[in-house]
Specification:
394 residues; mainly alpha; globular
Length: 394
Amino acid sequence: MQAIPASGIRSGASIRQLFSYPFRIFFLSLTVLAMLAVPVWVLQANGTIQLPLALPGLFWHQHEMLFGFLSAAIAGFLLTAVCVWTQTERTHGLQLVVLWGVWLAGRVLLAVGADLPDWLVHGVNFAFLPLVMLDAGRRIWRAGQQKQLMILAVLALFWLMQISFVVRLEPTFSYGALIMAMALISIIGGRITPAFSSGWLRQRGLDGGQIKVVPALDVATLASMVLLMAALVSGWQTVTAILAATAAVLMLVRLGGWKGWLFRTEPLLWMLHLAILWVPVALLLLAGSILAGWPGSAWAHAAGTGAIGCLVLGVIARVTLGHTGRPLVLPGGMVTAFIMIQLAALVRVITAFDAIPWSAGTGISALLWVLAFGVFLVRYARMLASPRADGKAG
């Protein structure tokens, strides 16, 4: 794509512009949360600071990474994509301010709400995902695109895991949420990654048809993950291990059809392929934790830092460029950011196996994570808060 001349790029960053499209405010917010929540957790865990958290420290960390950080990414991406899919007016203005306010209130209440009533803290947090699903669902239904309801069904299961986790305070349900998060990656990543990859090849006069998508395989992978979640929360250990290994193999077969090695020169694509590769890695580590006694935190961080963290950074980097009317060319430093977050995941998984002392490993991983999102913040904040470069609305 040709670069847009500087004279064609409108300036004037503003808070109002952040609420002109869902991806703007939510991508910026999840970035700030990523840079704050992880170091706060490390400092809280080693006793350096003590915040009046509304949940026990480890549970707060798990909740904020899944239902704070990831939920913001889901809202920003899904509500932006649904408007495009259904050709409906975007969520913006006061409606978006209210939705974002519910998300932000949830973060604040959990961080300082130790002395507040549970019904208030948890009620606000439980309200966010249903509001997102309601906004997306009504557009999908009116447009007659019932096939998109699969995403909402998985998101509803994700929300159910949130409620169960907070009410019961059992890690099993945060693990169930991780499985559902990987199921969402399977659906959304399974759409955008081969589509973007095929388009990239065609733009260069190459055969885009060599990127293979098999719908039956996609359905089988998703079904295996839903069954895996059910087995995991039910405590069926052997069944969980078998389903985890099965889902991993199915996901690896899908990735093989997408031929990620063809895109080693395009970071906006290899980042997506590598991020999704963390899904089968996490699933195999899960199977190993049951069958071979591998540490449970290894698969959880392969899923959380690896699959979720890496895919979120890759997607928000690309979506922001496309939806602000800019060429799909990464700003300076973002390739380094992509490498840093991959290393953050690798270091954290290795640390789980005691190959690196816990304090050093978590500290290094947290630093790499913060630096990766810090680069995004520096390079993208003005894009998110400024009008589109091509002069279009949004």
